[in-house]
Amino acid sequence: QVQLAESGGGLVQAGGSLRLSCAASGRTLRSYMMECMGWFRQAPGKEREFVAAIRWSGGNTYYTDSVKGRFTISRDNAKNTVYLQMNSLKVEDTAVYYCAAAGYGATYSNQRSYDHWGQGTQVTVSS
Asked: 10, 11, 82, 83: which is deepest, by most CB within 10 A?
């Protein structure tokens, strides 16, 4: 089994920054299970949406247009941890942020490609 644990959420004023972390663990954890790591978010009353993703081996990164230039996804292979640095936060970034893991061949923006999900961490941006 693979467990994903998010942390780093909280309340911040517009224009501020937060860094989310997602630590992967589990007795059966293997690197191929984390070939694609993604961050998704769900705002109140809205569907969950793709935010960012990173390929574990090549390090390629992908972002939804609304966060490009403000958010940065990165990984620490040794710690099995993925980060989401969020700068210049806006009120519309308020949501529960979820970390997810997928194997090889995953379509990074497709939620159905991901096999494992964290419980989510709340990010609230005040005006």
From this structure: 82
